[in-house]
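Give me the fold.
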Amino acid sequence: MRTTARKPVVAGTLYGKSVLLRRMRAQDAEELDQLRVASRAFHAPWIDEDRPLELTSRGPRSRGSDAIGAAGRAPSKRKSSRRTWVLCRREDGRIVGSIALSGHIGGVMQSAFVSYWIGAPFARQGFMRAGLELLLGHAFESGRVHRLEALILQTNEASRRLASRVGFRLEGVARRLIWTHGKWRDHERWALTREDWRAR
């Protein structure tokens, strides 16, 4: 018996064989929070739930669990350059993760950062690779960006493998780049340009 998608088709949605990507909306909050809680132990080595909201002259200011972005939170009302998509399983519309573009720089650079997050029950099933390829194609072929960069912890082998498989190249290591898990940690810089994407 064929499963009927429980979420409506909307304009601007990107469709793949096994997944679809659509812009995150406020009503996704409950489902995303449930998935985030279920995935907390799985992501604990890489995602810090107590990462500070901002770093002040007196040190980091805790944000508690007020997470957004890679941790899959619903968007806040604050204006931001971040654009977040929910990654859904196409057969039933269930949210399996999220992908975000942030830090867009226009002008002569046309670049942005990409981050991605998959719920633990859906990991290692090809959903994130399919979603990333959808979004990369959309970003590059729309002409909005020329270069995308992903910042990845050196210990996150799964994320490093995924970046490599979709075409990103390791360009180097940024020393003490991001405050997480109580200290400044090095991150690898992986990048992909429109030319490299088209040459795959």
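The helical segments are 29-38, 40-43, 127-141, 157-165, 194-198.
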